[in-house]
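pasting for ref. prot 1 ->
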Amino acid sequence: MDVAATYFNEVGLLPIILVVVGLGLLIVEIVVPGFGIPGLLGILSSTAGIILWSRNLSEAVILFTILIMILVIVFFVVARSAQKGRISKSRVILKESVDTEAGYSSSLGQNELIGKAGIAASEMRPAGIGIFDGKRIDVVSDGQFIPKDSSIIINRVEGRRIVVSIKND
């Protein structure tokens, strides 16, 4: 009887199936955008299979190393395909830019508010509400107290933060 057949009879079929299924689940996790469940199940299945397959610690380390090398190779193949290959032509990869020039915006075009004058609808210590062109807007001062009904002006916009100061007439 040859060495491979003896080794196979000694190891059994279950560890090999666990490793192959685990590797398949890990590849699915790499390729398919998802929740992480296939990856977790793949790690558990592969680990259980390698533990059952190995006769000693050095053999387990070698099997884990081989498994990780296979996954790294698959990851690079998938990443390259996502850039230039078949995956880049699929609906999984976003091809369009979602910027303001294309008509998308994550905020209400608040940079257009810079320089607008309004009234403080509440006291600002430093946060409060200002009324600009009849619209209530959450604003903040640069740290100074601004009394209610004061004339204010928008100095700058920092993301969703609109900074105002007292308007000097």
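and prot 2 ->
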Amino acid sequence: MRVAVVDIGSNSTRLLIADVDEGGTLAEIDRRSIVTRLGEGVDATGELGEQPRQRVLAALDEFARAIEDHGAEVRAAVLTSAVRDSANGAAFTATVRDRYGLDGRTLSGDEEARLTYRGATAAREPARPEHLLVIDIGGGSTELVVGAGGEVDFHVSTQNGVVRHSERHIHSDPPTPAELAALAADVRPSLAEAVPSLHRDRVTAAVAVAGTATSCAAIDLALEPHEAARVEGHRLGLASLSAMLERLAAMTTPQRRHVRGLHPDRAPTIVAGVIILLETLRAFGLGAVETSERDILWGVALDAASREN
């Protein structure tokens, strides 16, 4: 069964087209990501802005052509943090559903956690003895999901996002040490409050998905765009992430646009993303994290295919 999934997040709008067989094996056909920053200004105004909405619709125009060209039988769209948090989110979801013929829905925090965990663990050995933390850093929120043996034990959505926290704290280019410290100080207590020590202490390994994590892996490996698949399973330690933060925070946004491995559109928010990832690892007492492109897109594709069958 050919499935198309669109993920409309706070920072990027993404597409996955894949074939899913009856046994739940997924083979990617097409994958695209466009930084649309739908969450721009939501933290301050409580509403999705006109320009961000138009950027998303332009991306969906492109994706609609790809979906038709590949003949997807099942077509789903999920909308997450920025839409949940905005007063006009429901109206925007209806526009997406009606204009593009997508089975569009705004995910609850519970659904987002389940689908993110399903995607991140889809290709992992089910008998692997670990209590796994899945970290999904987005534009408006960071989802933390803890589980074992393919089952979710705990999840929480924290209001730590790369767009949200860049807007709150970074006003200089490059950012000042005081701005960086304030951003980290904002993230740190929210993690301690959101995740009980019982769950933090039992975690033995972590997988980070979505754009911040895969960008960090691509920077660490100095990848060219056509080498993106190499981020799968790449391990990032605290020392390498700290050195990366120091390097990126010393640059202006235009300078970051030329960093090998970093998509130019992520240059304005990557510093906040690295800080959030570092603070999350420290909160769980972890020295390293694996990166993966198997995220909520995979989870939704597998879920949609199983419901159709």
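The CA atoms of residues 233 and 291 lie 5 Å apart.
The radius of gyration is 18 Å.
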